[in-house]
Amino acid sequence: MIHKILAQEKTFSWNDINSTRLFVVIQGIIGGLVAIVHGIFAVLLGNKPAGGFILDPATGAFTILPTYLISGIATICVGLALIVWTIRFIHLKNGPAIFLAICILLFLAGGGIAQVGFFLIAWLVSTRINRPPDWWKSDSFGNIKKRWASLWQAFLTGGYLFLFIGIAIWLVFTPPGTPLQEHITAYLICWTSLIAGLVLQIFTIVSGFARDLERRKQQ
Q1: pLDDT tens digits, residue range 60-86?
Q2: Nearest in space to 58 (alpha carbons), one of 171, 179, 168, 173
Q3: CA distances (Å), 182 to each of 84, 173, 174, 179, in order?
């Protein structure tokens, strides 16, 4: 009996992973964690009036909520909701729509400005989790599609490596409220890393679509 059970179990394989869904899940987790950091900084500022309908230099975020404390608590809660929804429900029929709604709430609560672009990319990609773009399905791409599919892991790793470098610099050297003039070099490295990560993410998306199509052929 034990031998039969072990024989039926499948070992983990990268080939079993939906590339597009994995990308969106990672985006949602990182975006939620970054927003939670913004929320923690806001909570630490206490029950004081927030910046209002402008970008607040004290937190590096926009909020419509009246105080830093309320903004911070709301941001932490919505950030956690984003992480849970992305991991568990993003692939469902209304998953992308609710993901976008949570991201909008996060922005209004005070989750930060920089990740808005990343959220929009994740939302657009999430609408294609189970149906890669038609243009990639053409047989005319042939070997090109296979080459892009083979590069997926490299693009995925490189993209998030640069993103983590940018986020680490932001956390350590340029947290919310840090004057630009005093840390211009750190800001420059931070944004260069984030932009490099964004470019590689675009390559990750394209190669992920190709990989998902190649996986379907093998199933």
Answers
A1: 678 888 888 999 999 999 999 999 999
A2: 179
A3: 37, 10, 10, 6
